[in-house]
């Protein structure tokens, strides 16, 4: 194992809390094992680790991240996404291959959303050709987590959001019975209500969205009315 990944593993294992691990596993529907390190504590540990050890060379990032991803406890995947986030504005173009690997392995909403709404969004903005190539492939994928990533990558684009593109991708997923797709549609539309609420209202009115998607899309607007 790479020394940097090994040092994170040792640090986390030292602070494991089996009593906390069980409810954390239940919350995630038993999808993953946990060490029992809650979010705030994990953030503190990683902050200390970065301060003491610095960041690895970017050329070693892929190896470190994949080794952390291979470990059974979910906290190591969180550490991996945290580490990538430190490099999100420096990642080489070809790092998209690693991001795709992370999206389709040990997939669940926690890691997929962290990657999609932050790291992937930045990467697509920096590399338009990568964005076009991936969207062309992922939008048609049988893996719904990749399609969820296509819906969510613009979450933090604000005024730079390509709303027409978002609407196209949403239309491609109409009729889906997958909860995580319909939830993502509502989330992405709700986020855009901060920029153009009327555009979202119109789209929801004209589009046969699932009840979940429509409800999530208009949630903030309905709260403002009440």
Structure description:
It is a single chain. The protein is an all-alpha fold and 226 residues long. It has a domain at 1-87: Leucine-rich Repeat Variant, CATH 1.25.10.90. The chain is 69% helix and 0% strand. It has helices at 3-14, 18-27, 39-53, 61-70, 74-85, 96-104, 109-126, 128-138, 144-152, 163-172, 179-192, 197-206, 211-225. The longest helix has 18 residues, at 109-126. The radius of gyration is 19 Å and the shape is globular. It starts with a helix and ends with a helix. The model has no long low-confidence stretch (mean pLDDT 97).
In short:
This protein is mainly α. About 70% of the residues lie in helices and about 0% in strands.
Map the helices and strands.
Blueprint: H1 3-14, H2 18-27, H3 39-53, H4 61-70, H5 74-85, H6 96-104, H7 109-126, H8 128-138, H9 144-152, H10 163-172, H11 179-192, H12 197-206, H13 211-225
Helix pairs in contact: 1-3, 4-5, 5-7, 6-7, 7-8, 7-9, 9-11, 11-13, 12-13
């Amino acid at each position: 194992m790479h020394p940097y990944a090994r040092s994170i593993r040792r640090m986390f294992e030292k602070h494991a809390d089996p009593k906390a691990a069980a409810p954390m596993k239940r919350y995630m529907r038993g999808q993953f094992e946990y060490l029992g390190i809650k979010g705030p504590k994990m953030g503190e540990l990683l902050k200390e680790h970065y301060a003491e050890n610095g960041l690895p060379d970017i050329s070693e990032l892929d190896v470190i991240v994949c080794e952390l991803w291979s470990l059974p406890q979910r906290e190591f995947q969180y550490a991996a996404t945290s580490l990538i986030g430190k490099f999100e504005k420096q990642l080489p173009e070809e790092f998209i291959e690693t991001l795709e690997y992370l999206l389709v392995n040990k997939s669940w909403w926690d890691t997929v959303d962290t990657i999609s709404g932050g790291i992937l969004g930045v990467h697509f903005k920096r590399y338009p050709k990568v964005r076009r190539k991936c969207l062309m492939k992922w939008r048609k994928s049988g893996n719904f987590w990749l399609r969820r990533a296509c819906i969510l990558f613009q979450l933090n684009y604000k005024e730079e959001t390509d709303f027409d593109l978002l609407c196209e991708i949403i239309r491609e997923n109409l009729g889906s019975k997958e909860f995580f797709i319909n939830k993502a549609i509502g989330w992405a539309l709700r986020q855009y209500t901060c920029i153009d609420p009327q555009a979202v209202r119109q789209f929801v009115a004209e589009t046969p969205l699932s009840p979940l998607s429509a409800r999530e899309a208009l949630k903030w607007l309905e709260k403002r009315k009440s």
